[in-house]
Amino acid sequence: MAVRRLAPSFTVGAMCVIERDDGRVLLIRHLYRQRWGVPGGLLQRRESSTDAARREVREEVGLDVELIGEPIVNVDAEPRRVDIVYYARLIDDRQADKVKPSSVEVLEARWFAPDELPELQFETAQAMQLLSQASRQAASPRVPRAHAGALAGRDDAAS
Description:
disordered C terminus; 3 helices; Nucleoside Triphosphate Pyrophosphohydrolase; alpha+beta
């Protein structure tokens, strides 16, 4: 009981860096954020991070994805946030060109080449950097070719 009262609480979210066959990465722009990010959001009570990641993609852009490899966990102490970052591929790559927002929270959804990334939300830039680092350190897990491009500042509100 003492641990529960004294330990800081963290929010836990799941996000997906989705890459299609040609290497383009899916980014979305939320109504309440200025910069681009990836599909994701907070876990619901008793929900696994894998279920949350798939659910958020379905809710935000109406796509079904396959999660590839082990997730990367990013603990950001200042805002007390834990992000579980998955690399994902579309189950049906033919759906890539039909991507569109399926939530009122999402203004825009587009595919970007790794060398043409727009300004990214801080959390998304962190996630892409961590996935890139993991791919250089481990030979077996498949992670995206995309890179963090321009690091975003913390001026966006947390999602």
